[in-house]
Description:
By secondary structure, the protein is an alpha+beta fold. It has helices at residues 5-14, 20-24, 53-58, 60-69, 78-112, 116-151, 189-196, 201-207, 218-236, 250-255, 292-298, 354-370, 418-423, 465-476, and strands at residues 38-39, 171-176, 199-200, 214-215, 240-243, 247-249, 261-262, 269-270, 274-275, 285-287, 302-305, 311-320, 339-349, 376-380, 392-400, 405-414, 425-428, 456-464. Helix 1 (5-14) crosses helix 9 and helix 9 crosses helix 14. The longest helix has 36 residues, at 116-151.
Amino acid sequence: MSSSLLPSLSHCCQRQHFNFVLQHGPKGSRFLSVKTPEVHPVTTVLPKPRLDYRAISESIVYKSHNAFNRKAPLPIGALQSVVRHYDEQKRLSSKLSMKRHSRSNLGEKMRKIKDPIEKQAVLEEAKLLKVEVTDLEQQLMTVEDILLGLALQIPNDTHPDVPLGPEEAAVVLSTHGSNPIAASGNRDHMSIGRALGILDFEAGATVTGSSWYYLLGEAALLEMALTNYALSIALKHGFRFVTTPDVVRADIALRCGFQPRDQNADPPVSQMYHIASSHPSHPELVLSGTAEIPLGGMFANQIFTEQNLPLKVVGLGRSFRAEAGARGADTRGLYRVHQFSKLELFVVCSEDASDQAMEELRSVQTEIFEGLNFPFRVLDMPTEELGASAYRKYDMEAWMPGRGSWGEISSTSNCTDYQARRLHIRYRRSSATPKHTLPSSSFTSTQSAPAIPFAHTLNGTAAAIPRLIVALIENGATFDEAGNQWA
């Protein structure tokens, strides 16, 4: 292999313009630079998620088929239980309202009564009503907790164009770059990185463990260059730069659709790194698996005006993945690691704008990867690859000849109102917006759209640094005529 790879990597670093913030910053400063959103009182605990039980009850056949197609771990009978408990909730709520109304009437009546004996009789009746109200409140709270627990397990609805089936059913939407070069073990990024002295997996294993690593010299500079390069394109398209906390509450991760602990595995495994606390009363904290989580949490419990949507941010953070259960070739080298830098795009928009926003995210990502000059393709991912939160998901895969396969470098997900209902992200409709029926993409009931609906959220990877380095090294390596000698 020619040593020309090192100058090319250095050139990638040198060509970045570090004054891009001054050039593009104002274009991405829309969020929080306009009218301040309505923020609910600061609290350490968010309100409970607000799910649409009526929509679930009215579309139980669809919800059942949808969960089956997505291979969602939904307990048997969960959907029927939602319907039963929703009916019970409505019955108890109605009864409770009647009892409260009766208490109010008794209070008015008591103030008008002059006869002590009659007043005492009304007082006894009021005491009995108080007991009944307390009992009904407790029953309602229990039913609502059960109802919420069941409904939270239901995955998001699915876009009608999403292909059915496992990963192999993905549909290629577009291909980019030159034709893929032949697969070759000589192009393995681990071997090349060691030969060039830019990757050190052995020290990472000594210091921390397997799948931890050091980037040295040009590789470390390349991480900075790739981050700034992708960020400059995001800023050009109106995203505002945010650096995020890498530690988040487990509750926030769960509301975004991530399972800090996989209870369905046998035995149960942890998919995130949990931070031990000496105070049991403190909230459970985890290391964030993606900047999507703190970016989503940044908008939690707020009401925005429709005129200020969409809100577009690009967040930089460290991603931590326990990768429990990962095996085989995917765990080699930089492809699947426990910690990496990641630049994430995040959008909050109105409920009728998320399909267009998803195509815009795809366009930004395509521009980023086309500038890196390696072959890649865009896939429309099938139902079994959507997870809990995605309504539709595009993956972008780069050709990695050293691995001998395509490898995921990015994804884009339209989560519709799945995250917003859990995080309480809403917006106030403008007076010019007609109160139309809710869009069929959410498969909601035919009820009139509320004046303060839940927003839609989307996320997309701008740059997952280690995998971009894999693609660049394995496609950019050059060899001497013998093909197996380091030059």
